């Protein structure tokens, strides 16, 4: 065992202080210490994207980030994007367009899609496919995931225009 | 998938990082984005008792375009390369290649410095750096030196960088003429079965100069002068492309692995090079 270090994270807007070994992976800290179990472990080898969270404005695979590396960062998980009474536009779009079946990949998909639309608010279908390429789904065949993201993009742009 | 224990360091200056490398010697290693190193540590193929995270060293960041010379700090991420408008103008091949590396999540974290310093034959940037004629700036206890990308790679994971040096920047001339980065992979996010970087200039109807490099077809990136020479003075027609393919084939040395047997890799390398030349020529 190595020395533990003091870690400070802002997770879904809340400050979290904990002692952890630097080698602990961010996904394990989120799930096992902070009980934030939205981000899933699909492969643990940087391939599936089920563990995707937003870290300081970047979509990252939290199975490939040491908690020490994340020290000081602001993290958003699926739990932080909405409340059960008022779903995020993307969550509603996934529901409307059947963007999920078993739901295992969905927290990673939606978290990634939020950052994608942040970086590129009006993507083409090709840009959605390319921008979601780090997230694997074993069920849907992706068609409806792409539809959901495009529908959410349209709705979010319309809302932005209405607000202006 | 838990790596062996380590002490974590996050120095905020290059001097401090170099000092830590001196103090801990072979037990220390720097980390950039961690997207090659962390998987290796999780598999326990790399053990790093002292991990030196470079993320807080602001001097290693930034892209500067000074006339015809481009300079990228080692910690510039693949995502930043893709988003940088000036870079896409001055050397569009870099963006074309970066877009074919891994997936969005990996590109937010993975850096150009980590990609070229790693020494993995599967990495895409080392081949591209041969093609561009890039120079790598290394800083160590004895000061700063510059090493040509074409002289940097010695064998798989073996480079001209000594253990006490840090790669700080990469520089190369802005490109003119046509370009293409072409890559064959089994699925999105995969390393190359074969990849080709091609730069061409045209004078009238013929090719005035060419630079060609291949990725993952030997234990080091392959800069094929002979393949480039086969194009110069031609109209990059079928005969010239076939000659370039044959010259390249003599320079590569692929091994059999889960991406296929040697004959298949040689075949794919030829197809990829031929596509890259045609696309680059169409852009001159
Ligand atoms: C799923 C997946 C798919 C991938 N696909 C591709 C692909 O298709 N093509 C491709 O090219 N790459 C691919 N990669 C690798 C990715 O691009 C890495 O990010 C990159 O190879 C290394 O960059 P890094 O910043 O993450 O470096 P790190 O992992 O932090 O470091 C890599 C090595 O370089 C050394 N190092 C890093 N920075 C410096 C420095 N400044 N000075 C001296 N030494 C340094 C480290 O000590 C380490 O040995 C993939 C990775 C994953 C996880
Ligand atoms: S669990 Fe992190 S990418 Fe699959
Ligand atoms: S809905 Fe089952 S993995 Fe995507």
UniProtKB/TrEMBL annotation, chain A:
Keywords: 2Fe-2S, Iron, Iron-sulfur, Metal-binding, Oxidoreductase
Entry keyword Methyltransferase: no
Domain of life: Bacteria
GO molecular function annotation: 2 iron, 2 sulfur cluster binding; metal ion binding; oxidoreductase activity
Residue ranges constituting the 2Fe-2S ferredoxin-type domain according to the UniProt record: 5-81
CDD domains reported in the protein's UniProt record: fer2 (cd00207)
Pfam families: Fer2, Fer2_2
Protein name (record): Carbon monoxide dehydrogenase
Organism from which the protein derives: Puniceibacterium antarcticum
Automatic annotation (TrEMBL), chain B:
Keywords assigned: FAD, Flavoprotein, Oxidoreductase
Gene3D superfamilies per the UniProt record, alphabetical: 3.30.465.10, CO dehydrogenase flavoprotein, C-terminal domain (3.30.390.50), Uridine Diphospho-n-acetylenolpyruvylglucosamine Reductase, domain 2 (3.30.43.10)
Domain FAD-binding PCMH-type: 1-177
Molecular function in Gene Ontology: FAD binding; oxidoreductase activity
PROSITE patterns listed in its UniProt record: FAD_PCMH (PS51387)
PANTHER family associated with the record: XANTHINE DEHYDROGENASE SUBUNIT C-RELATED (PTHR42659:SF2)
Name by which UniProt lists this protein: Carbon monoxide dehydrogenase
Species whose genome carries this gene: Puniceibacterium antarcticum
């Amino acid at each position: 065992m190595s020395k533990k270090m003091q870690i400070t994270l802002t997770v879904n807007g809340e400050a979290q202080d904990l002692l952890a070994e630097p080698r602990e992976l961010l996904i394990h800290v989120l799930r096992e210490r902070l009980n934030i179990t939205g981000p899933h472990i699909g492969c643990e080898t940087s391939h599936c994207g089920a563990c995707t969270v937003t870290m300081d404005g970047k979509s990252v695979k939290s199975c490939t980030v040491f908690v020490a590396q994340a020290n000081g960062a602001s993290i958003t998980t699926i739990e932080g994007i909405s409340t059960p009474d008022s779903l995020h536009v993307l969550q509603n779009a996934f529901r409307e367009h059947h963007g999920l079946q078993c739901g295992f990949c969905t927290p990673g998909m939606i978290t990634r899609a939020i950052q994608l639309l942040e970086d590129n608010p009006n993507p083409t279908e090709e840009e959605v496919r390319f921008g979601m390429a780090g997230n694997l789904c074993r069920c849907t065949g992706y068609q409806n995931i792409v539809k959901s993201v495009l529908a959410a993009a349209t709705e979010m742009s319309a809302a932005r225009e209405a607000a202006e | 998938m838990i790596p062996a224990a380590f002490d974590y360091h996050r120095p905020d200056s290059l001097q401090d990082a170099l000092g830590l490398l001196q103090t801990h010697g072979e037990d220390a290693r720097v980390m950039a984005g961690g997207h090659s190193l962390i998987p290796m540590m999780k598999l326990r193929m790399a053990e790093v008792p002292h991990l030196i995270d470079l993320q807080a060293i602001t001097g290693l960041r930034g892209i500067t375009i000074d006339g015809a010379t481009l300079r990228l700090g080692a910690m510039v991420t693949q995502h930043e390369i893709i988003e940088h408008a000036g870079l896409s103008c001055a050397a569009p091949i870099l963006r074309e290649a970066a877009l074919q590396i891994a997936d969005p999540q990996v590109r937010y974290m993975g850096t150009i410095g980590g990609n070229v310093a790693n020494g993995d034959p599967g990495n895409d940037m080392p081949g591209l750096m041969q093609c561009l004629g890039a120079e790598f700036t290394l800083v160590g206890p004895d000061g700063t030196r510059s090493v040509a990308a074409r002289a940097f790679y010695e064998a798989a994971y073996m480079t001209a960088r000594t253990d006490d040096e840090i790669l700080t920047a990469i520089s190369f001339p802005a490109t003119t003429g046509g370009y293409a980065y072409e890559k064959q992979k089994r699925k999105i996010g995969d390393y190359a079965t074969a990849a080709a970087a091609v730069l061409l200039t045209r004078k009238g109807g013929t090719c005035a100069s060419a630079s060609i490099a291949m990725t993952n077809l030997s234990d080091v990136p392959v800069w094929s002068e002979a393949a480039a020479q086969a194009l110069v003075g031609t109209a990059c027609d079928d005969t010239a492309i076939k000659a370039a393919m044959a010259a390249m084939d003599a320079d590569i040395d692929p091994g059999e692995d889960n991406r296929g047997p040697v004959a298949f890799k040689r075949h794919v390398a030829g197809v990829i090079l031929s596509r890259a030349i045609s696309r680059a020529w169409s852009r001159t």
